[in-house]
Design a protein that fits this description.
It holds the Pfam family ABC_tran. By secondary structure, this protein is an alpha/beta fold. It has 18 helices and 15 strands.
Length: about 650
């Protein structure tokens, strides 16, 4: 409970509090003058035979109440200045926690409920607590001042039982919070257990397992009932506190009234003392007990759950809730003071193993990979084989079950998200573009970029024409009308400008035409650092320095010729590939029609017609150095003797492929 109360107290703006206290002063007036005015009205007015004086004193109470109402109006107007920043801080914690959990590969299904429901509960109860505590302080201070002015003897009689009742209530708050928290926990456990049983009600009925199912639910039902009874007992303690602190002063004062009257206390003073107790002290205590006992407990439990759920371990396991956030900013846990890497584009993965759940088969098993600075690696494999999973692991978006990933020699798990963002950049298949300006979208990862740098990046990636069509660098950008390919161009330019030394493109060019894809990939290959491309087309692999082939069983990595020789899957993928567009008469991509040692590898470019090179799929290659078809391969990549073994119309089993890339 102390943590939650300290969290709320630390977010009280001192300037706003001073203003709130200033406007609360007029509200002191009704509490301070009510008993004195009643005493004077009785002693100096009605009992003295001067009803006009009595009415005038009672009118003073009405006037004081009007002044207090003006103060109350200003107090409510300023309450939002305390409550809304508190809500913003809670939202920051929840969002930061959800994002950090996502970065670590953990789903956070409750984040939306916390944002839309629990944060609003905390906000409302926070404002209610401020008003309850403020109202209690104003009423008690006014009443005590009035009692001391009216009769110190009366004050000495009524204040001790009042303070005893208040102290007892404060002492029960910790117990009440603990029991309320336990009640909420048992309620959730009961709901979870009952939901599981009800989902299997058909199986329960079919197997005659009603007794077993009932036994499963009995335990959480009993625990929830016990927690509810314990919470009800705390409510009885609150009633006792109200009796001692609220009614105790009245009983004491009435019991002592004959003695006070014998000592010279007037009837008006006695009635004024009763007025202070009945109209100020007792209502103030009742309001405090009611407010803290309901809204206060809801505040403590809700804020506690928000803080616990939002203690999202970032990439290093540091909680964002460890410190107080600066207003308007989310606190990012201070990263370890790691030295700047000597080679920030260098990545190593050792023994990577990852599965989506404890019972699932590993998507990757014991994978070792090195990406050096200046490297250009293409990851190839069938859809669903684990290419995007590998990209997520290399970028720290997923946590491996075993193995390590290092960027620039630093374990990726030791980097805070802010540091990690400066060392690697990931461009997913579905590019994200936000409402704002073109410039803001392009420079999001490098906000202080010079215009010349942004222009050069757009020229390199191929988005300059898109920028001009959108209206220029400062033009407003609405993501809705953009095509998927246009979104990808913007995201690619944004990533190209990033200071990160490692760029990972997870099918980030899949919506671009082959020529635009080539331009973007070649731009990233020429960019300082290293690039890993999850290939959407096999042509991406042909442009890469090295290729990594994932087939679900093993991984093969190396240059094009090495992978062709070692990976049947890669040869098969090449066999289905059509070369990307070329100008008439232009040669196909280097390496398409040759294998290690000059053996046929499954694809042979035979001629260029129009703007597309026509390729043929040939039978699988024999081991390197052995021709897979009669005639072999000429040094230039064309079939020896001007014919292609297994071509169209032959009996070799090959198939002519006319489909263009993309």
């Amino acid at each position: 409970m102390r943590r939650e109360l300290r969290f709320g107290a630390n977010r009280l703006d001192r300037r706003v509090l001073r203003g709130l206290a200033g406007w609360s002063l007029p509200e002191l007036l009704p509490a301070a003058v009510s008993g004195t005015a009643v005493a004077r009205a009785l002693d100096d007015g009605f009992l003295a035979g001067r009803p006009g004086v009595g009415v005038a004193w009672l009118a003073a109470i009405v006037a004081a109440a009007a002044v207090g109402a003006l103060g109350s109006r200003q107090v409510y107007r300023r309450l939002g200045e305390l409550v809304e920043p508190f809500r913003d801080d809670l939202v920051s914690y929840v969002v930061h926690g959800a994002l950090a959990r996502g970065i670590n590969g953990r789903r956070d299904d409750g984040a939306v409920a916390r944002l839309t429901h629990q944060v609003e509960i905390a906000r409302d109860t926070y404002g209610g607590l401020i008003m309850v505590v403020r109202g209690f302080a104003v009423s008690v201070l006014g009443a005590v001042a009035g009692l001391l002015a009216l009769s110190p003897a009366i004050a000495a009689l009524v204040l001790p039982p009042f303070l005893i009742g208040l102290g007892l209530f404060v002492a029960t708050l910790g117990l009440a919070a603990a029991r309320h928290r336990a009640y909420v926990a048992t309620d959730e456990q009961l709901a979870a257990r009952a939901t599981g049983v009800l989902r299997g009600v058909r199986d329960v009925t079919a197997t005659g397992s009603a007794g077993f199912a009932t036994a499963l639910v009995d335990e959480p039902v009993a625990a929830q009932a016990a927690a509810e009874r314990a919470l009800a007992n705390v409510a009885l303690l609150r009633v006792l506190c109200q009796a001692v602190g609220g009614w105790g002063p009245l009983v004491v004062l009435l019991a002592a009234s004959p003695r006070l009257a014998a000592g010279g206390l007037s009837a008006g003073a006695l009635l004024g003392g009763l007025t202070y107790v009945a109209s100020a002290l007792q209502p103030a205590l009742n309001q405090l007990i009611s407010g803290l006992g309901s809204a206060g407990l809801r505040f403590v439990v809700t804020v506690g759950r928000l803080l616990e759920a939002s203690v999202a371990e970032d990439a290093r396991g540091v909680s964002p809730a460890a410190g107080r956030p600066v207003r308007g900013r989310v606190p990012v846990a201070d990263a370890l003071r790691l030295p700047a890497p000597a080679d920030p584009g260098h990545l190593t993965a050792a023994g990577l193993t990852f599965a989506y759940g404890p019972g699932a088969a590993p998507v990757l098993r014991n994978l070792h990979l090195t990406v050096a600075r200046g490297d250009h690696l293409a990851v190839v494999g069938p859809s669903g084989i684990g290419k995007s999973t590998l990209a997520g692991l290399l970028c720290g978006m997923l946590t491996p079950d075993a193995g390590t990933v290092r960027i620039g020699g630093v374990p990726i798990g030791h980097l805070a998200p802010s540091d990690l963002a400066t060392r690697r950049v990931l461009i997913p298949q579905e590019a994200y573009v936000f409402a704002g300006s073109v410039w803001a979208n392009l420079t999001y990862l490098r906000p202080h970029a010079e215009k010349s740098e942004v222009v050069a990046a757009a020229e390199a990636v191929g988005s300059r024409g898109l920028v001009e069509r959108l209206g220029g660098w400062r033009a407003p950008l609405d993501p809705g009308p953009l095509s998927a390919g246009e979104r990808q161009l913007i995201a690619l330019t944004r990533a190209y400008l990033s200071p990160a030394g490692l760029a990972v493109l997870d099918e980030a060019t899949c919506y671009l035409d082959p020529a635009a894809e080539r331009r973007a990939e070649e731009a990233f290959a020429a960019r300082p650092g290293a690039v890993v491309i999850v290939a959407h087309r096999v042509s991406s692999a042909l442009r890469a320095k090295r290729v990594l082939v994932l087939d679900g069983v093993s991984a093969v990595a190396g240059d094009h010729d090495t992978v062709v020789a070692r990976s049947p899957l890669y040869r098969e993928l090449l066999g289905y590939w059509s070369a990307e567009p070329h100008a008439a008469g232009a040669p196909p991509a280097a390496g398409v029609a040759r294998g290690g040692g000059g053996a046929m590898v499954g694809v042979a470019a035979v001629r260029a017609r129009g703007d597309a090179a026509i390729t043929m799929r040939l039978p699988p290659v024999a081991p390197v150095g052995v021709a897979s078809a009669a005639g072999g391969v000429a040094p230039g990549g064309a079939p020896a003797g001007g014919a292609v073994a297994g071509g169209a119309g032959s009996d070799g089993g090959g198939t002519t492929v006319l489909a263009r890339d993309g």
